[in-house]
Amino acid sequence: MNTWRNASLAVTAAAVLALTTACGQDKGNETPNGQAVGAANPAAPGNGGYGSDYGSGTANQAAAKPAGQLAVWDSKELGKVVTDSAGFTLYRFDKDTASPPKSNCEGECAKAWPVVSAGGASAAPGTDASLIGEVTRTDGTKQLTIGGWPMYRFAKDAKPGDAKGQGVGGTWFAAAPDGKKAQGGAGGDDDGGEEAGGQPADLAGLSVRKDPKLGEIVVDKNGMTVYRFKKDSAWPMKTACTGDCLKKWPVVAPVDKNDTEGILKKGFVTFDRPDGIKQQTIDCWPIYTFSGDAKPGDTNGQGVGGTWFAVSPTSKLVGAPK
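== Lipoprotein ==
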């Protein structure tokens, strides 16, 4: 009996040691003192354009409007953007698929993001007409696709040239002539210049972007800046952002370790939060995005409340006071 018990204790000890090594205690002065779970000074409620306000637009889902003769708008901020014949920006949704084409925007979603009908649509002059196609939606209607991606308008775009849907929820982006995400132009006076413009169409689940002000910071698959909360803890792994705080600071969902570029792999584990949400960590620190960041390159969450900071590739707080 004692032999079995000793063996069991040895296995338990080995498991604890392995976790300690992965999420170890070699954080130095950066390791917090075990903040309890709970919304410590939680951020105020609000989606900040995070995309949860489906149906807030004025459009209805009665009938998808035809696009007519497509055109290309050369935006200083977004680069080349596809518009319908009336000059309204067309968008694509990251939760859709292009191969095979499939729309995952139904019901209330389609009220905020009206579907573009495939009927009567023709390619913009000088673009590849073979990229124009259609997909049959669940209600039997035909939706325009470009490069396989279903096309939408945004209900809050009030006039030609508006692009208020750009970056909403980190999943909605203006469409380029080939159906990929529109990419920002070079130069300009915008903060971050070329670096802060549109990100490459296909990023790893987590990768590194060189910000002109902050240096190397982690971004998610949509190019959105990733943040850490100073009131969280890596060992033991705990979160101080719950409830309404998560509306403003959504967690980064689990990412496959092989779907990263330039990110520290040590302590790259999934955090099973007490609220049942699974969250990605870097070096065992829980990571988040910010609902106030409207587009790739934004760093509006940097320094908020003196507790939220962008994350370096090795999980350090970028720009935080020593």
